[in-house]
Structures are given as C-alpha cells and as structure tokens.
Amino acid sequence: MKTIAKLFGFDTTKHSVRAEVIAGITTFLTMAYILAVNPTIFSALQDMPQGAVFTATALAALIGTLVMSLYAKKPFALAPGMGLNAFFVYTVCLGMGYSWKFALTAVFIEGVIFIILTITNIRDLIVNAIPNSLKKAIGPGIGLFIAFIGLQNAGILVKSDATIVSLGDLSSMTALLAIIGFVITSVLLVLKVRGAMLIGVLITTIIGIPMGVTTWNGCISMPSSVSPIFAKFEWTHVFSLDMVVVVFTFLFIDMFDTIGTIIGVCTGTGMVDEKGNIPRLKQMFMADAVATTAGALLGTSTTTTYIESSSGVMQGGRTGLTSFVTAICFAVALFFSPLFLSIPAAATSPVLVIVGVFMVKSLGEIDFSDFSESIPAFICLLFIPLAYSIGDGILLSVISYVVINICCGKWKKLNPTICILAAIFVAKYIFL
User: Fold this and answer.
1) Contact partners, residue 362, CB within 8 Å, separation at least 6
2) Handedness of CA 323, 65, 140, 133 (dihedral sign)
3) What is the pTM of this model?
4) Do residues 195 and 312 lie in contact, with contact meaning Cβ atoms separated by under 8 Å?
5) Of 29, 66, 244, 326, whose CB is crowded by the most CB atoms within 10 A?
6) Per-residue pLDDT for 276 more than 70?
7) 365 and 136 in contact (C-beta within 8 Å)?
8) Three-class secondary structure of residue 78 per DSSP
C-alpha cells in the first residue's frame, strides 16, 4: 500500500483500491470509442494507414494517461481529442491544402509551446485575454461541426448543387445502420449504461454484418507499426502565417478544452481544497502538454484530457490509480486493432452526433441578452460548422468581439492581448 500511495497519491483512509479499479475501467469504456473514431476520421487522408493511426492513437492515450497517473496523480485520462482531429484532417489538410506532415509539425510545436506556457504560467495571460462568452461558444461550435461530419459520414446529409447540403437517402443501408446505431446508443445513455457509446458502436457494427455494411477483418493481431507516420515532420512552412494560425488554434482549443474538463469535473465532485483551488493543477496541464508532444511524434492529432474521465470520477476515482488502470486498458486494446478497424463509419457516426450533444451544454452559460457578448459568440457557433473550419470560427469571433466593443465605446472590456490577436487575424484575412 505504501508503494501505491507514493506512486498514485493514494490514501488508504480515504480511497478504495476496488473503487479506483472500477473507476479506471469505467473511464476506458466511456472513451474507448476514440480507438474506432480516430482512424475513421484520418481515413480521409489516404496516405495515412489506418492501422498506424490506430496504434498511434492507443499509444498516445497510454502515454498521456500514464503521465497523468504517475506525475499529476489524478484520475483523468487522455487521448487524441475529438474536434482537434477534425480540425487536423478537414481544415488543415483538406481545407487549407497542407500535408498531414505539416499538421503534425503544428501539433508538435503546439505541444512544446504548451509545455513552456505551463512552466512559465504565461498560459494564464492567454486564458484571461479571451472573453468567457467566446470560450463558452467554441465547444458548442465544435460539437455542431463534429455532428455535421458524423451525419455526412453516414450519408444522412449529402452535397447538393441547389442548397449546398440536403438530406440523403435514408433508406440506404449505410444511413439506416447509422440511424439504428443512434437510437441504440441514445437509449443506452438515457439508461446510464456504463460504456454506452462503445457498446453502441459494437452493437451497431454487429448489426452491420448482415446488412453488408460491416466488413469483418478479425479480432486480435499484433499492433501495426507507426513507422509510416512516426516523427514525419515538415518544416518547410514553419515560419508562415498559416502555421502560426494553425498552431494557435490547436493550442487554444487544447488549452480551453483541458481547462474546462479539469475545472468542471473537480469542482463538480469536490476535488478542490478549502479555498476552492484545484490541487496539482500545473501538473495536470503538464501531463496534457507532454501527451500532445508525444502524440505528434507518434503521428496523431492533439492529445487532450477527456471529459469522459468524469464517468470514472463519479464511480469513486480520486487518485492516479484510476488513470493507471485506464492506461493499462489502452495497452491491452493495442492487440485488438482488427476489431476496432472493422467498425464502419456508419457505426461511429452516431457517436460523433452524440458527442456534439455533450459539447453544446455550455451555450446556456452565455448571456444572450448582452449583444456585445452574444453576437461574437454566435458568430463563433455559426461559422465553425458552416465554414467547415474551427479556426475561422474562432478568428472571426475574436475580430467581431473587438470591433463591436470598440465601436460601442466599451473599451474597458478589452485587453491588449485580445486586441493584438484581433489585429493579427485581420492581417491574415487581408494578406492570405
């Protein structure tokens, strides 16, 4: 017990080994869908092998969660983030036309910057510079974007020359399977079944076999090599304005996603001290930063702290032992890549839509009666999915926030940092 106490911050008078183990498994079950979803999203980039992406995803989750367990000693798990992977694939690569190597380079730089910001506490300056209304709008905007992608992957929404987008053929096997999967997963969530999303994906995949949508590739195998994508950085455009914008966007989303997850879960479950402060907050940020850097080396998008960690915390997880168990689960999952890669896009699409539901909750915290706050927030919410770009949604919302408040004479609401950021973003649209 002394070893466990030292390694994981475990206190025998407050914590239970059984509760921590159950909590760790619960956390894994609620977030293991990323092992199926991440390779599916990256499959849009044909020169990134799905097997290699699966291995990189599992290893990034394993490393990040271990650092959280042993260094921060907290019950949070990490993995490549939803929304961040969509920005990587659909905005940077397919939208801006850059290679996945360019995007990996941006993620690596972001990780290094995050480490520096964590060490120097400069991150506080950036955090405080962005208005709360915009922070609350980014998550919902990404949620709508993710749901939009999920509906496209299922063929439920399709391209239209007349209306840009329209409803697809709901009688097709792919769309029908996705609808069935959405109903199944929704019911499991309503009934509070542990691992509802993963179970929903697996059941939908099985149903897809007789429907001809699922192609069975096997169950167990040795992990695919990450060598095709390991440390494949591209430094050609490292000093370009596009790289600055991409790095900042990765950093911004990762930072506020982590802040929101940690603060929300800790305050909601009493994991704060008598003054309301969160113990070992800096160590948790460092774990996130190290995980992002390691994930970039392995060949995947930004690795971040998962809100699904709250499921384990609700089960009684309070120490690093919980996240250690979750990390072990990801290590075991490495040997089941054929199983996860057999899962069709129609089976993961419902998860993308439901994750969107989770991410829109913060909309209720925006004061829509104050138009100087709600209009920029709405621009962020609107442009992320409709412009098919998380970056543009954030940039345009920051610009609009500064311009509207300057024109209304509300100078006191602005700070030098956000004004400088707005000026940089305006220059980006003028000169690029």
Assistant:
1) 136, 137, 139, 140, 260
2) positive
3) 0.76
4) no
5) 326
6) no
7) yes
8) strand
